[in-house]
Design goal:
This protein is of the alpha/beta class. The chain has ten helices and twelve strands. It has two domains: 176 residues, Rossmann fold, CATH 3.40.50.300; 74 residues, no CATH class.
């Protein structure tokens, strides 16, 4: 049996009297593209933040590649192999696209001040950065500044920066948000290519048509609880998912999803 790359067990997150994540368990297998979905306020982003350490678990555990990481700081979890692409893209606008990615690629050199002082040659990081920009389809724009780029390019820059950390597990928080239908489909296809190249991915996304098209499995949260886990079209036809996520009848069809509200 394949050992899961990520194992979230009985995870609970409370903020005062509010339970944002309620005894949630799920696994992500190596090489998988998993969709973590649910309505607004379902607890998806909080669950992802509990994995990365941005928020602390009230109870439960998180394992990466067979090792407990829920006691580690954010930077130590990243060094163990996590990388998160944020929904809100905030590049360093006075740097070029390449320089933004170089900064991420040099994460090992910034582990300690001494390491940073003695490692001043960034040729290796520039090579990695260019490769990551090429991988997400914006290599020719390497020497341009983020300030002149449309949102679709900035979203790809965010992917490149996260990939430069050379993660075992790539976490994507609503990468398609704010994009038009063509941009969203193209970026979703890029995510599929990253997965095909060997990257294990967890995707939070509200664009159900693209989620169903690209993801191999879905985990659905509602009110902080897991309500479904399985093959996309089967999950989207689950009556509890229809009621909680979409508030109506849903028929998952080839190439998209039809919802009646």
């Amino acid at each position: 049996m394949t050992k899961p790359l990520l194992k979230v067990s009985d995870a609970t997150v409370r903020f005062g009297g509010l339970t944002a994540v309620d005894h949630v368990s799920f696994e992500v297998n190596e090489g998988e593209l998993l969709g973590l979905i649910g309505p607004n306020g379902a607890g998806k982003t909080t669950a992802l933040r509990a994995v990365t350490g941005v928020v602390q678990l009230s109870s439960g555990s998180v394992e990466l590649d067979g090792q407990r990481i829920d006691h580690l700081s954010i930077d130590r979890r990243i060094r163990k192999g996590l990388s998160l692409s944020q929904q809100l893209v905030k590049p360093l606008r006075d740097m070029t696209l390449l320089e933004n990615v170089v900064l991420a690629a040099g994460y090992n050199k910034t582990a300690s001040p001494l390491k940073a002082l003695v490692n001043v040659d960034d040729a290796a990081e520039r090579k990695i950065a260019q490769a990551m920009l090429d991988k997400v389809g914006i290599g020719p724009l390497a020497n341009q500044k983020p300030a002149i780029q449309p949102l679709g390019i900035l979203k790809r820059l965010e992917l490149a920066r996260a990939l430069a950390l050379q993660p075992k597990l790539f976490l994507l928080d609503e990468p398609l948000a704010g994009l038009n239908s063509k941009e969203a489909r193209d970026l979703a296809s890029t995510i599929v290519e990253l997965n095909k190249s060997g990257m294990t991915i967890v995707l939070i996304e509200h664009n159900l048509g693209e989620v169903i098209r690209v993801c191999q499995r879905l985990v659905v949260l509602d009110n902080g609880r897991k309500i479904a886990d399985g093959e996309p079209r089967g999950v989207m036809n689950n009556s509890e998912v229809r009621a909680a996520y979409l508030g109506g009848d849903v028929v998952a069809e080839k190439g998209g999803v039809h919802a009646s509200y």
